[in-house]
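Field reference: sequence -> structure
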Amino acid sequence: MTLQECYAAMGGDYEGVMGRLRSERMVQKFVLKFLADGSYELLLSSAEAENWPEAFRAAHTIKGVCQNLGFDRLYRSSSELSEALRDGKALENTELLELVKEDYQATTGAIRALQESQGV
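Structure field:
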């Protein structure tokens, strides 16, 4: 799998991120580092504990990273979730969290497939 195919599989913006970072090696480096980011786990544990300010912080972090890396699909859902949780509001629409989970799995699945195909 190529990096461009990875972006297609995750619903990302390959051209946009290449325009910003200008190096496929640099983009791939940050894409692979995404797997080690703990924000998603923090989001899940915070939501389960109903710690809404912390859940907001985690969703907002995911949103920012996804925006920078061109992970458009996950960016959109995490942005919606972030806005729903802004100012520490309790999550009323649990479908937003489910959508983030779905999009996160699609994104990380594509990244793992890239990682596996490249022997990294």
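Note: Residues 30 and 47 are 26 Å apart (CA to CA).
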